[in-house]
Specification:
single chain, 284 residues, alpha/beta, Rossmann fold, Pantoate--beta-alanine Ligase, Chain: A,domain 2, 2 domains, 6-stranded parallel sheet, 3-stranded antiparallel sheet, 9 strands, 40% helix, globular, binds pantoate
């Protein structure tokens, strides 16, 4: 694997790949890699001749300075994991290289920014849209791979690609979970073993709601949403920020469970002061 830190070198290497008519699969990450990221690399590798990953902890997308400062960094370990997964190139720029000046631009996302993560993390999706746009301009991949764990991020990136005509196919890959059901996340590294055990109840709640939703087709959503909140609130170590049952594609609120519709249960909750998100998409 070739590691690259400058934008100029990245462009030069990509031009070489294009001369060979190689298709490029791209996996943008913020590092602290886990099996979820590796599944994206494997998918990119399987469907493209060249696989490029990036590691860049993007300051623009952190609405909370403490969260940014505590974000785990383990570049040496990540490099080994990427090599083992067969990644061809790693782009690992510094903040000064990526943002020679702090961007004055902000991206107005619209309705998606007023719900769920958007409502609770002001400016987050503008920061994601800016970093992803810049990375897409630099890498110019054929396909880019994202995890379904960040369901709303995927919706924002699909909107970005559609509305700004990036000629890139966005591939969403399934959530990879621990044996306990806990969704893999770089933030899990900040949890103790006991914290991880408590956090696994988030997935149990999603499974509980899946059954309740399937039994409740044709009924209002609100009582089932409350059942989910009550389920999580019974655990002292979990502080729920939101639990919402929404339309799976638009992530907008629904009032009734229509037969044949796709719904998503989206949760954000704190365990040991670590903010975790998870979701489950269910076909009714
Ligand atoms: O999902 C992430 O790790 C980040 O939000 C991304 C897409 C790499 C942008 O910084």
């Amino acid at each position: 694997m070739i590691s690259i830190t400058s934008i100029q070198d990245l462009r030069r290497q990509i031009a070489q790949e294009r001369l060979k008519s190689h298709s490029i699969g791209f996996v943008p990450t913020m590092g602290a890699l886990h099996k979820g990221h590796i599944s994206l690399i494997k998918e990119a590798k399987k469907h493209n001749q060249t696989c490029i990953a990036s590691i860049f902890v993007n300051p623009l997308q952190f609405n909370n300075v403490e969260d940014f400062n505590k974000y785990p960094i383990q570049n040496e370990k990540d490099i080994q994991l990427l090599k083992d997964a067969g990644c061809d190139y790693l782009f690992l720029p510094s903040v000064a290289e990526f943002y020679p000046a702090t961007p004055k631009l902000s991206i107005h996302i619209g309705p998606l920014d007023r719900i769920l993560e958007g409502a609770h993390r002001p400016g987050h999706f503008s920061g994601v849209a800016i970093v992803v746009s810049k990375l897409f301009h630099m890498v110019m991949p054929d396909k880019a791979y994202f995890g379904q764990k960040d369901l709303q991020q995927v919706a924002v990136i699909n909107q970005l690609v559609n509305e700004l005509d990036f000629p890139i196919e966005i591939i969403t890959c399934p959530i990879i979970r621990e044996e306990s059901g806990l969704a893999m996340s770089s933030r899990n590294m900040r949890l103790s073993a006991a914290g991880k055990t408590v956090a696994a109840n988030i997935f149990l709640c999603l499974e509980f709601l899946e059954k309740a939703l399937k039994n409740g087709i044709g009924t209002p959503v609100q009582p089932i949403q409350k059942m989910g909140m009550d389920f999580l609130n019974q655990f002292e170590g979990i502080r729920v920020e939101y639990l919402e049952i929404v339309q799976a594609d638009t992530l907008q609120t629904i009032t009734h469970l229509e037969p044949g519709s796709n719904v998503a249960v989206c949760v954000a909750a704190y365990v040991e002061e670590v903010r975790l998100i998870d979701n489950l998409v269910i076909i009714l």
